[in-house]
Amino acid sequence: MKDMSKEETSIQILDTAIDLFWRASYHGVNMNELSRAANLNKATLYQHFSSKEKLAVAAVERATLRTQTFVFDTAFEASTNPVQRLKNIYQNVFHTHRSIYETESICLGCPFVNIGVELATTSEDVRKAVIKGFGVFQEYYEQITSDYRAANDSNSTSLNKEIVSALLANMNACLVASKLEKRPEAILEGSVRAVNILKHW
After folding, report:
1. What is the pLDDT of residues 40-81, one digit of tens each?
2. Is 26 in a helix, a strand, or coil?
3. How far apart are CA 34 and CA 17, in angstroms?
4. Domains of the chain (ranges plus CATH)?
């Protein structure tokens, strides 16, 4: 087995951290557990990330990129229709959560909401990283909203910001609901609400 490059090792650490923080919470995982799960010694972990907080910030940034690629970009690549793109986003999120539920009987909620709520008052850097991630996702909702209005001959732009905020909040809400209710289907129910927000706001 060949040695991993520095970049490959960092990615392995970050992907492990994303999974553990998502499942057990930031405070529920220590650096010893992270190093064991990543199959690395703790010294290697600290060579890449000097503190757990810095690791959490980098993990949020990595999770943002993964979500952007696998949820939003694939949703846009599959269709040019704004309504279908919105539905695709929810389908992609649903499939991920259903897969976890079918194998482990748990719903994990939103990794960004989870760590953001947990650390918002104690880590300004993590809070900012989560907000920045939401800003990336918001750009996709902005494109969907603009395209839908253009396709339906709507000249009004006064509510675009409110619609986009409502779409982002709806996704967060249905992920919280899926976790509390232990039902991945709550995500698809959120899709119906999202389309109604887009069409009737």
Report:
1. 999 999 999 999 999 999 999 999 999 999 999 999 999 999
2. coil
3. 7
4. 59-200 (1.10.357.10)
In angstroms, the CA 181 to CA 33 distance is 28
Q: Tell me the whole-structure pTM to 2 decimals.
A: 0.93
Helix, strand, coil shares of the chain, percent, nearest 5, are 80, 0, 20
95's tokens: 């499939």
The token pair at 88 is 């695709």
Which of helix, strand or coil describes residue 114?
helix
Q: How far is CA 100 from CA 16, 62, 94, 109, 183, in A?
A: 16, 20, 10, 11, 11
User: Which residue matches tokens 């706001």?
Assistant: 201
Alpha-carbon distance of 139 to 102, in angstroms, equals: 31
One-letter amino acid at 40 equals L
